Records
---
Amino acid sequence: MKAYCEMTREELLAEKAQLEKEFEALKAAGISLDMSRGKPAAAQLALSDDMMDVLSSESDFKAEDGTECRNYGIVRGLPEARRLMGELVGVSADKVTVFGNASLNIMFDTVSHAMVKGVCGGKPWLLQGKVRFLCPAPGYDRHFKITEYFGIEMITVPMTPAGPDMDMVEKYVNNDPTVKGIWCVPKYSNPQGYSYSDETVRRFAALTPAADDFRIFWDNAYAIHHLYEEADRQDEILEILSACEEAGHPDMVYEFFSTSKVTYPGSGISAMATSANNTADLQKAMTVQTIGHDKINQLRHVRYFKNLENVKAHMMAQAAIMRPKFEAVEKTLEESLGGLGIGTWTKPNGGYFISFDALPGCAKAIVAKAAEAGVTMTGAGATFPYGRDPEDSNIRIAPSFPTPEELTEAGRIFVLCVKLVSLEKMLSA
Amino acid sequence: MKAYCEMTREELLAEKAQLEKEFEALKAAGISLDMSRGKPAAAQLALSDDMMDVLSSESDFKAEDGTECRNYGIVRGLPEARRLMGELVGVSADKVTVFGNASLNIMFDTVSHAMVKGVCGGKPWLLQGKVRFLCPAPGYDRHFKITEYFGIEMITVPMTPAGPDMDMVEKYVNNDPTVKGIWCVPKYSNPQGYSYSDETVRRFAALTPAADDFRIFWDNAYAIHHLYEEADRQDEILEILSACEEAGHPDMVYEFFSTSKVTYPGSGISAMATSANNTADLQKAMTVQTIGHDKINQLRHVRYFKNLENVKAHMMAQAAIMRPKFEAVEKTLEESLGGLGIGTWTKPNGGYFISFDALPGCAKAIVAKAAEAGVTMTGAGATFPYGRDPEDSNIRIAPSFPTPEELTEAGRIFVLCVKLVSLEKMLSA
């Protein structure tokens, strides 16, 4: 099929008429599908069900250091949980603190601590007047919601396949003391699935912030979430904590990760890795906020997995469920939109999303049209600070939750909406 | 034995010499006992071990409304968890939100939200200049740590057996707009084990705060933590939410509670009960902070207990373990200190603590001396704001953790320390 931009007006009108018929037919089918969030599918949840058998009334509830896991205490988490969680991201246990069921909560609380008490004894951000965060975008909407909640001004930084535009990051961080942080999903980024290059990580580590209380918020959410078994299709990134140490900036980064998309979302364990200074600073809040997180769930996770190899094997079972879905979406996009010149999309090796870029000004209309036919997408704009995509172009596709059959159906509707909205745009131009 | 104040100096010196010998002997025994925190004992933990068998890989993980508990979502908690938790404090499910593993965390986060964003759209407390909390004391040290962390000025309000000095509470709350909150443990208060009278609760409900953003922080930590089976030895208090509604102040209270001392401390579930307005306000933070709390643990708790009657029966099993410990401490105190005029103590019907008042100026020295002999008590002063007991008199006794045998031993050491320090005080006067 030829590209839409090469068609005559008559050809476009004919195409549109044909597609509208198809759309009405699909709409009449009255389906209801959700591709809005990175929610694991039922089959993925079942992979962890055996974890529910790990602890029973007959269990020994002592951690390896003798800690009674059923009782209060141990604010930094069980030693074996800290060690295993550290291994997931290549960091030693002494840098790791294990928290509750969600790393999002740690990020929120870490920003909160900075707002109210300042970073490592610095002035509270809330009392500093304007403070700002760099937001590589498209990015994770829940990151942006945190900074928005706290009234932190967000500056959009363009993403590239190698990571954020580092020239812009360096310019801001090294010169502007109101810039206090940057949100990063360094591996299989949300939503593009890009992984930061070694050069990008090194440039991060080499930053010389104008603000003493600048921190990198390194959300390594998809550290082990590969889609492929082949080593050359598994992205690896440099370990940021040691990179920062080597560059002489050991306190510059907070790293977050969890088992939310490893075991059960919402019933996993989460962790933060950072320097001793930062840990001591954050403990000032933590030890007031809690007596300790759920150690029984930490014990359950550690006894279930035992070691890193088992976690990796588990993730390959996850990949076996996820991969066909990604490939089905990519196939539908390629077959239906390839060569039309009305959209581009990413083909990630891991993570939870495919990022789709429509013609400028079309994203909102495409998402609205898909909703009309019963397919819920992530709201257009959600991948940008304040929910505003300046190009109105980016759409996040989350293939994990639907079944493969539903995904084929949803994919058909999505591409139809892309075509129709693009045609309307072109015809009205 | 006659009261110390009736003894001659010679008698006091002789008594002291005798007690010092006893103390050296006990010290030489080299014991190590912890009576510092309200930590359940091993036997209490075992009462909940069957809960670990409730869910297995064969379980149906659907909540009663069909929610898949293994996946993301449901920020206010499972309907059946909200209902059961509400029943513990006599509040309907629509007012209840179920959180993670600790109500302390909810309290911290609720104060944090008020500091950063204000209460129900009000000006953030952090930007209001001086803000203050009333702190009935002796009280719970972790409450005071939260307000201290946030830089909120604390005003001590004396406790009576019927609750806080309500004349003082009314004077402050109804006239001083810098007073934003009050910490309350209304039932089996920490550390005295006092329960607020109906009149006290009604006076709370009838407060007409000078500050729109004043809230009562009602930590109903021991709502079902009776020590006795007999109805006339089970304290009951008025339900505060309906009392506030009836008085025309539906938004004035946040109520907190948890299963921390019902099932496993640190691996229980926690909850907040409050009005629809307050819930909507707090959700502005919650929905940014988390996608949802641990629903699997909520499901585990609800399926284990099934109903309120079973929870109550469980608490009577807890009481059967706790009661002899309280009675052992009370017996030791009565037998060793009764009539000496050097200390008074409470005899609660529930909760986790006995509150001991030594002669003014003796508490710190008693706690230090007990530590010398291997018995760790809660730090003297901890029960007051800023850790400063103006009388240096109050000591919190936590009988739950040691075994009965250990408790007898620790009790012997404690009373000896009380006597010795009191004698030193009297002799140096």
---
Amino acid sequence: MRVTVLGAGYIGSAMACVARRRGHDVRLWGTWLDDAIVDVCERGELHPRLKLSLDRIQILRSGRLAEALAGSELVVHAVNSDGAIPVMTRAAPSLPAVPVLSVTKGLLASPRTGQMERIDVVLAETLGRPLRFVHAGGPAKAMELARGVLTWMQFAGAAEDTGLCAGAMADETLLVGQTEDRTGAELCSALKNAYATGLGLWDGAIGPDAHNARAAAFTQAIVEMRTLVVAAGGRAETVHGPAGVGDLHVTAAAGRNRAFGERVGRGKAARIVAQEMAAAGELTEGYPAIAAAFRFAEERGIGPVPFLRALHEIIWESADVRSVLAGLRWAV
Amino acid sequence: MRVTVLGAGYIGSAMACVARRRGHDVRLWGTWLDDAIVDVCERGELHPRLKLSLDRIQILRSGRLAEALAGSELVVHAVNSDGAIPVMTRAAPSLPAVPVLSVTKGLLASPRTGQMERIDVVLAETLGRPLRFVHAGGPAKAMELARGVLTWMQFAGAAEDTGLCAGAMADETLLVGQTEDRTGAELCSALKNAYATGLGLWDGAIGPDAHNARAAAFTQAIVEMRTLVVAAGGRAETVHGPAGVGDLHVTAAAGRNRAFGERVGRGKAARIVAQEMAAAGELTEGYPAIAAAFRFAEERGIGPVPFLRALHEIIWESADVRSVLAGLRWAV
């Protein structure tokens, strides 16, 4: 099978490794931001982020997008959410009518309504036609995915398309669940970065002996993710599966969003922490994710989401972290 | 209000501190296994495990059980599951008809049927009458509960009784949810020790870079806990709240069950690890919890629970951890 991966960063390259493991003919296309990565890989060196060989994967520079897509039977979309519209707009003329398996997480402003929306909705509006969009949710750190550590993902889309994607990518180490609940799966993926930041706050504000508080916050995050998903037309069961519970677990257990929250929890302004982490080359997806999630809830009048509101106050309205957390009243 | 706590270990003493914080007249009764603890506290020293003062809490030695219970308006049952029948049998003649708020987690063999059962069912059989039993589930490490770190518990029982217990114990730092689903809450509390051990296996078998596998196992644990709870007549929503998701989160994040699993995951026989940990004074509740949970499922023909079955094979049937984990096929 011919598989084209768009985006040569961590997760795109990992998905290319998964496809190669399954014996497919794999092309990995790097965006204009990935040129430096592509240069290194073309010299036969290890992928500079994954530290793995991309041997037997054809790597294409940004100018060769049409060539990368020609004859493809499955497209993996692994560009970050900021790049989704520019990349897919350029890809559209060459894009075969095959499933687009997207590992991209986030919400985007709809050019039509101005409201925060799922990525597949915004792409369909932008391109003027729906894609055969399959969202891949679930806890999948790229390095482990590439190396074949047991991973359980959830593919969400039309049954025919999730079946094709699962058939192409699943193997002994990559378990793939399937659902038609694209709304639930995409929202879970977008929301978990926001809530994972929230779990980090307790580490900073209380210290390591905040197990009860973190577990309470984890539970409340699941409650609010379910509120948001169900109100938006998705299914509670998606929140209780790998895309929700599973992905929040891995995101909250470690990683940059948690670290971001922890530093804010210690009392430093979110804006400063985000600047410092950006300067150190660390993306803090939780920072914009909180704004996007809160806007999503507000625009639709969805609630109650007291934890998300508290996060927004702390991270985006410079409210004092300790007094907001102390005053937090969530539904019990 | 007069509150009597039965059991002067970690969690009983912490519940006594919570009741004292609410201004109640608190009596803390130690079982015959707690005599050494009571001696220390009676000399006015810190509680030897909690390292906190029990000032303004009346502490009674094991021989003074009737006195401890006289005039009590709320009884907190904080004896471990092995002690539940002997303690409540002795307490029964002096026990007022007030709610019994139980923080005890586990399953017991019914003297009537021989099957594994909820503690409140076995106590009612043993005493020949039902208690006003309220199970307290949720992520509540004793030290943090005593110190007033934010904690979210779930009280499960008859609405009148959970209301009385929540009214007596909840405060700004202890949030209390209420449910009539005693089955769900008790099973969650019993099952989480078993599954937390399972999450530890991956750390041992794969190492620290097993985030995806641990998150997959966390998700699968929730799936199987729901299967068991619903089949036993409980509610899925209980599993998705503090008693299930929340308590599994805190138990799996740290603690002895996880450590037990990790050492077994590295390839050492479970029996040996349990012996070593017992010799070091570390209780490994997950060890018997796996046997009890598996027996509970088998006796009722509940399934599929492939992760629990795999745990039982590894921990109780000396199966090779790596080959069992590699062969594990869970429902996706």
